[in-house]
Amino acid sequence: MDRRFLTEAVRRATLPGRPRLEVLGPAPSAAGSVGLVAGSFDPMTAAHAAFAEALDTELTLLVWSPATLPKEAGPGGDPSAALLLPEDRLASVAAWCGSRPWARVATCSHGLLVDQVQAAAASFPRSRLVLGMGSDKLRQLLDPAWYEDRDAALDRLFSRAEVAVASRAGDHAEPIDARWSDRIRTVVLPPGLAGLSSRAVRAAVRRGEDVSGAVPPEILPFVRGLARGGGGERDPER
């Protein structure tokens, strides 16, 4: 994708207003099912790719937001240093989507998954929505610290979207309110991917390690040459 187009897409995602979803590139507006896999994609990992495929939806959107919430640090915390600029994250995910007609990269103005579901519902009002996440993200989704009224917000989310959860290495099962439990299902990722994260890949890249098994082949050209700070750490958002 053209760099100027991506820069403008990033700028539009930062504008104030109601939650907005923008699919970058052509996408069917009447897909029967739409999957949402949100992330920093700094960089996209093999786990992201496997998760997107496992949702088995007619259209799967890999959603990046300038307001992505830092999973490791919690509300108000400092995320780990970034590796890729936002434009490079979008370009790399778009490269992965290029040979997969069912996958597209998208931006969202808001970071909360409740808001991203609202934005997707506005863009795909007749589609069944499937929100994919790791079990660590589910724990964050259920954390009252992110909401003024958690139960009301989650009622809105689960009324519009199903949630597909993949277990992360070392995570414990999170208790789910009975009124939401039938809207959550488990996704099993291939062996070896449960502990893979963008954070771990960033650290490996900076140590100069080979990450060819941790990211899809389309992503490698975007992370090569960034070892030991050589071009990374250019953006404070993770």
What is the fold's blueprint, element by element?
Blueprint (H helix, E strand, L loop, with lengths): L2 H11 L7 E3 L9 E6 L7 H9 L4 E6 L21 H12 L5 E6 L4 H11 L4 E7 H7 L8 H11 E6 L11 H4 L2 E4 L10 H9 L13 H4 L15
Helix pairs in contact: 1-3, 4-6
How would you sum up this structure, described in words?
- This protein has 238 residues and is of the alpha/beta class.
- It has a single domain, classed as Rossmann fold, CATH 3.40.50.
- Helices cover 33% and strands 16% of the residues.
- It has 9 helices and 7 strands.
- The chain has a 7-stranded mixed sheet, sandwiched between helices.
- The radius of gyration is 17 Å and the shape is globular.
- The two termini are 21 Å apart.
Question: What would you say about this model in short?
Answer:
With 238 residues, this protein is of the alpha/beta class. It has helices at 3-13, 46-54, 86-97, 113-123, 135-141, 150-160, 178-181, 198-206, 220-223, and strands at 21-23, 33-38, 59-64, 103-108, 128-134, 161-166, 184-187. α1 packs across α3 (86-97) and α4 runs parallel beside α6 (150-160).
